[in-house]
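Teaching note: in complex prediction, the entire set of molecules is handled at once rather than each chain in isolation. The prompt given to students was simply: 'Predict the structure of this complex.' The entities are:
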Amino acid sequence: MSCTRIACLVLLLIAMTAGAAMAQDDVVIDFYFPSATANDAEGIFQRYADMFQEENPGITINSVFSGSYTDTRNTILTELQGGGAGPDVAVMLSIDLYSFAEEGYIVPAQSFIDAMEDGDAYVSDFFPALMANGVDEMGTVWSIPFQRSTPILYYNADLLAEAGYDAPPTNNTELVEIAQALTTDERDGLLVPVAGGFPIWMYQSFAIAYGRNIVSDDPTEVYFNTPEAVAAVEFVRSLGTDLGVGPAGGAAWGDTPVAFLAGQAAMIYHTTGNLSRILDGAEFEVGVWYLPSGPAGEDGSGYGSPTGGGNLYIFDDGSKSDEELDAIWKWVLFLSSPQIQSDWGATTGYIASNATAWETEPLASRAMEYPQYGVARDQLQYADKEFSSYATITIQGIINKTLESILTGESEDAQAAMDAAQAQIDGILAEYK
Amino acid sequence: MRAQSPRRSHLSVLQPYLLIAPTLILVLMFNVLPAIKTVYDSTHRPARGLNAAGKAPDYVGLQNFRDLFDEAHYMGTRFQRTLRNTIVFALATVVIGVPLGLLLALLLNHKQPLLGLWRFAVFYPSLLPLIGAASIWSFIFSDSIGLANAVLKSLGHPGLNWLGDRNLVLLSVIVVNIWKQAGYFMIFFLAGLQNIPRDIYESASLDGASDRQQFTALTLPLLRRTLLFVIVISFIFAFQTVEQLQALGEGGPNDSANLLLYLIFQNISERRNWGYVNAMTIVLIGVVLTFTIANFLLFERDESN
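The expected output is the structure of the full assembly:
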């Protein structure tokens, strides 16, 4: 019995080796992707790979699930720094650009775009806000938007209506007024998930709404101690203290949508990545609107949220043949095509990253049925770059720790804490000037 | 025959080395070399700035360690706070968790109804996968939907932000750790207790020794080796804690509940920090080694007296 089993195993191995040998002439593209949302990302990517391989005989896509975004980055860095091959294409955070460009592991998509006949049309179809993190200060395009998101305001329309509000808040004054009106002993009026390790993303929404983002196009500059930056964090802190519409120190990321669905929070700030889950899970009418504007523009210009999510990166240390690079770019073009973006957006809830995708099925029907999807897209006109600079991970860490210390009341003097952080950040960035 | 004997003796000299070679090679590759590299890297700093990827690291002597102990340095701030937390965490586990394990073992060492059930209930947490158990606790501790706050609210208390309040997160992590490990420690104590012959207790009772006297004069000294073992492993475990933190607040706001190994893990993503990561590793190993050796020496000395 066991002998037969071993024989079978040996035969199987031989068959697999033979199969690999037969496919040897194919160009094989190693494609790494992180966990998307709770959906079956592995199944979806396999489906895309099958579609692509059918259209492009001679190219094989080897899809590798590589854990969380952090796991993916660490896996790739470890492989490359240890002299390994690494991926050919990977989905990584859009803010990872400088970490990888700095190391010389990735190549700009620009050279491929320049070689295209309709390169300009290809680029201009992407929403400009989603391109911001993929372009360097010289205007060179490095990475292509793939699975993108932004924070938006979710509100329990039934609760708002009960309290006499027909429309969601559009500025911070209304936000506070409605949140206070809806706060009870059992319920928070507004949850902003700034607790739990990563406050910078939500915080950036407020910094932008107060009139100045903490980053610009220059990856050697960070603006963390400006009056706008300080006022923004003081406002977020006051939500849990003086204004009393949420927990002191802010809500935790994962708890926030759960509390919202359970009716224990009237309004929340959260990612569009959770839109499908919230729409499916709610037993009340879910409203979605732009993040309310701050003092920067009561006229509406003070709207603003950062973008988030992952881009497609191309890896080459200069050793890849033209044939391989050609196949790699075909795969990137395929994944960023309106057809796939429409499918990916409708299946996962990520914002499809080019305008044409929204007129393509299945997303076109889905957006028609649920206008909430369109809100996330329309907010993009006010969205701005997510935090990214040289030494991104280290500097992001400094900002996160400083925000946490201010939000939890450990540092009462926000300005002083942010000045100290800015000094540390400037010290690091000086190495890049 | 005669010609063969020197060759045979040659072989027999080599034989033991050949036999241990596979293990030796593995230990060299996966233990000794990385350890040497860690020491080397802790005195170096990866090249920084633009186009630094191909450049060799710079020798910086003990500067990485100096930065770690500089409160104004971005890594120093985090390291010192985390080191303090780790010591508090380890002491709490040892001072509360170990006696609790002993107490549970004493309670469950006597014949009583449903003994198996009680032992299972106490030991059960150690069977759960750590990350799963910590995730369950993260729900219990959740601010808005958690069981802990539901209980507090039913008692008229407004509830606590267990994983968001900088003064509470470390406590929450300690509670989970003790809950998880007390039953595990209990098993060692139970085994130790059952190795103590019953008749010495009987003669002690006949001589009129109270329960307390029996505990301090018989049980505790006879459990000495078990106790040493449990204290040392609980301390080492405490220094190796990573998984719980991933589920319970990821180190808390501004590192208020961060522990050393998790901080090291958090900083491997960026090459510029590798010098610090290695320096922190050396501090970590230094603390654990010092504690372990000190413990053994103390107990051994006591033993020989």
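Point out the following to students. The longest helix of chain B spans residues 4-42. Residues 57-304 of chain B form a domain with the MetI-like fold fold (CATH 1.10.3720.10).
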